Amino acid sequence: MTTTTPTATADAELPRLRLDTPPLLVLPILALLALPLVGSFPTWVTLTVAGLAMGMMIFIMASGLTLVFGLMDVLNFGHGAFVSVGAFTATLVLLPMQGWMQADSVLLNLSALGLAIALAMLVTGALGWAFERIIVMPVYGQHLKQILITMGGMIVAEQMIHVVWGPDQIPLPLPTSFRGVILVGDAAVEKYRLIAVAVGLVVFAAMFLVLNRTKVGLLIRAGVENGEMVEALGYRIRRLFVGVFVAGSALAGLGGVLWGLYKETLTATMGGDIMVLVFIVIIIGGLGSVGGCFIGALLVALVANYTGFLAPKIALVSNILLMVAILLWRPQGLYPVAKR
Amino acid sequence: MSEPMLALAGVHTHIGQYHILQGVDLVVPRGELTVLLGRNGAGKTTTLRTIMGLWHASRGALLFDGNDVTRAATPDISCAGIAYVPENMGIFSDLTVRENLLLAARAGEPDTARLEWIFGFFPALKKFWNQAAGTLSGGQKQMLAIARAIVEPRKLLLVDEPTKGLAPAIIQSLITAFRELKAMETTILLVEQNFSFVKSLGDTVAVMDDGRIVHSGRMDELAEDRELQQKLLGLSLDTHQ
């Protein structure tokens, strides 16, 4: 083996890769702009924490969906089913364990909740596997059919919830330790919202570590960018996709449990209802981008909370307006994934 | 004569309603560099993609190292020992140079000695080891794409138009790399339109037109026969240079 002299042009200095900061700055700018409009600092703190908590929960529900789309170009409009099923599955643990939930013990509360979350993620992960094999796999590469059949899958799942749990709403009270508020100065911050923020950050950190520090994560990132080339390197992208689909479904299940506890009431359509926000988030973030999904979720939730307080009449369309504004600024989303 | 590394017999490929390959017969001898020439749209890229299983042959047979891979899936073809450098290079822009090579090293971490050998003719890759591949120049991306294909020994290397749009200095690096690979008796199937680049590298040559092989033979014979060049390629060697 011999070596050669480097060529000047091949060895030319590269511009350093800079962190794309403008999308990151949108969040603090939005929060700071809202402060004088809200007028009261404590109210602003409450709204901001509520927005962050809601954003984290939406992120947990949306992160799997954005990877599923990025990796295999699959539009899964049935993703909301996993949210609903996750929340309802949690009741199988939480309702019989009301004693632990209502006990004045953080350990017992967390144990019950941990079991409920584990079961919900297990069931929604398994459901996700079946959903991919039976519903999604036959329609790879056919977007219109994907939309129709996955929406159909969600309707079936909602009806199955009615069959198993009945047509009525199910109340899901928070564990005793998670109720109430913490006073930060004059601002009242709900304990559960802080917990939701913490769980969201843990999920984001875990996803970040898996995607950036493991070979599976590298394969997912590479597959989102160019699945064909990943196959040409000898990896089976379909298996990877099934794994991501199952993980994404399990995360939606986790999001469903958190969302259900946040609302304290479960309905079969709760997953379908939140899907509008989830899709806005993954479009704003850039299809296939987990980082973009994270920022997008926080943006959507903060805007929803601020406008809900400042101008309730436009709150319903605020997220559509936000999406329009973001897409006018960055048509591919905040952090577009490089595609082949 | 030893068994060829790759043999295509009467291969037809359809893409949608289009009949692209119309009975391709091609032999890639073991340990040699075979050049596939032809005008735009002749079917060269489709031939490589069909070999890789990215598009399946609708008729005909593909034999790789004595095994029928006509209906094999792309990952199986890759694992059998074929490395592929597509025309668009197919590098992962969001991943670093290191991560791109890490994915190509199926055994785990890339072998250090082999990496140093690659850095010998592609030193920019060492310099930008932890740089996102998307920030590399076109030539550096091509180096990375080839490095990724050879980071582990492979039986056959498929390379699609590596010199397209590159500066002469970068092309010189590629020539050096291919010479090194030839010295190690790596079998290579190289698709090119730049005749001056391949005339000194190629051992055998095949010329495609309208989805068929219209000529195959030794490269030195084609390089010396200007009439044949004129007939097959439409241009004489002088105008290519």
User: In one word, what is the shape of chain B?
Assistant: globular
Provide the residue-averaged pLDDT of chain B: 90
Strand order of the largest sheet of chain B: 6-7-8-3-9-10
Estimate the strand proportion of chain A: under 5%
Task: Give the CA-based shape of chain A.
Answer: globular
What percentage of amino acids of chain B are in beta strands? 25-35%
Number of helices of chain A: 12
Largest sheet of chain A: 2 strands, antiparallel
User: Taking Cα atoms only, what radius of gyration of chain B do you get, to the nearest Å?
Assistant: 17 Å
Average pLDDT, all residues of chain A = 90
Low-pLDDT residue spans of chain B? 236-241
Oligomeric organization of the protein chains? heterodimer
> What is the CA-based Rg of chain A, rounded?
21 Å
Write a structural description.
- The complex is a heterodimer of chains A (about 350) and B (about 240).
- Helices cover about 75% and strands about 5% of the residues of chain A.
- Chain A has about 350 residues and is mainly alpha-helical.
- Chain A has one domain.
- In chain A, the strands form two sheets. In chain A, strands 1-4 form a two-stranded antiparallel sheet. A two-stranded antiparallel sheet of chain A has the order 2-3.
- In chain A, a hairpin with a 2-residue loop joins strand 2 (about 180-185) and strand 3 (about 185-190).
- The relative contact order of chain A is 0.19.
- Mean pLDDT of chain A is about 90; it is low at about 1-10.
- Chain B is about 35% helix and about 25% strand.
- Residues about 235-240 of chain B have low confidence and may be disordered.
- The interface of A and B includes residues 9, 228 and 230 of A.
